[in-house]
């Protein structure tokens, strides 16, 4: 095709190619999700249906894009970690961000009925996102620890807050005032002494979020690459020692994960399996 006289406008495009040999993290967050959750009557402090839907939307991304090594989610956010050597979309930031955001959002809407059944979706949700680069394995591990620490802080507060309202019959402003200035030990004490709730017995998915990762497993003596959901404690070095090969895979080992992924997810959180 002959060049057009208007083709010069391409020169205004900015080169947004991401640095090579760095970990690419795309983090998506729900936009105005407090209102969205209220309008759709999400259970407080946690709605297991909503969490499973988030996990399933993330699963569809890992299933489609083998360059996504793993993903971590909690509440209304999900982080997608790409293989360090990925060349997907030539490492263009805008391409990666828009692809992940649109795929996740459309999957969330498309699979809504699987988890909410007769509760109709009143209006489409929105997710925004950002791309962050981490140069070292240590930086990436600290990022994952940071996001999981955020799960604990937020969930302990929300569990205490909504327990004071639902069981303690306090108003939202009274519950907020009661928790003002408290530390984790204080919140645990309130839950246990006043309501007989041992926070340690809360479901792991609420306390630690969900990590989706790829594993090779044997089924009928055949190796299959599957995506599993786990809720381990990533704040402890034990986890990263146990999964030391996850971030230090050589190219030969990486190829083990490049086969077609299956529609299998572990049943640790009873996610719907296609």
Automatic annotation (TrEMBL):
Residues 6-135 form the tRNAHis guanylyltransferase catalytic domain. One of its GO terms (molecular function) is tRNA guanylyltransferase activity. The keyword Nucleotide-binding applies. The keyword Magnesium applies. Binds 2 magnesium ions per subunit. Residues 139-222 form the Thg1 C-terminal domain. GTP binds at residues 29-34, 75-76. Mg(2+) 2 binds at residues 29, 76. Gene3D superfamilies: 3.30.70.3000. It holds the Pfam family Thg1C. Homotetramer. Interacts with MFN1 and MFN2; functions as a guanyl-nucleotide exchange factor/GEF for MFN2 and also probably MFN1. This is tRNA(His) guanylyltransferase. It comes from Arctia plantaginis.
């Amino acid at each position: 095709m002959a060049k057009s006289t208007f083709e010069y406008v391409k020169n205004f495009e900015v080169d947004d190619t991401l640095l090579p040999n760095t970990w690419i993290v795309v983090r998506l967050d729900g936009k105005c999700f407090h209102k969205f959750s209220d309008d759709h009557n999400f259970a407080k402090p946690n709605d297991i249906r909503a969490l499973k839907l988030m996990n399933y939307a993330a699963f569809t991304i890992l299933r489609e894009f083998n360059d996504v090594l793993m993903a971590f989610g909690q509440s209304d956010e999900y982080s997608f970690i790409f293989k360090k050597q990925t060349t997907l979309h030539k490492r263009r930031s805008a391409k990666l961000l828009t692809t992940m955001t649109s795929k996740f959002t459309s999957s969330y809407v498309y699979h809504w009925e699987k988890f909410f059944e007769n509760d109709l979706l009143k209006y489409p949700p929105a997710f925004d996102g950002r791309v962050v680069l981490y140069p070292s394995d240590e930086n990436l591990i600290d990022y994952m620890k940071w996001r999981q620490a955020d799960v604990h802080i937020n969930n302990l507060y929300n569990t205490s807050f909504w327990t004071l309202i639902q069981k303690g019959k306090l108003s939202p402003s009274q519950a907020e005032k009661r928790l003002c200035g408290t530390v984790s030990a204080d919140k645990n004490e309130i839950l246990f002494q006043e309501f007989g709730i041992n926070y340690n017995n809360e479901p792991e998915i609420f306390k630690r979020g969900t990590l989706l990762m790829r594993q090779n497993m044997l089924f009928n003596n055949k190796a299959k690459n599957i995506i599993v959901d786990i809720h381990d404690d990533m704040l402890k070095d034990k986890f990263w020692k146990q999964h030391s090969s996850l971030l230090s895979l050589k190219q030969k080992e990486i190829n083990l994960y490049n086969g077609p992924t299956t529609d299998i997810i572990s049943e640790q959180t009873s996610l719907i399996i296609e």
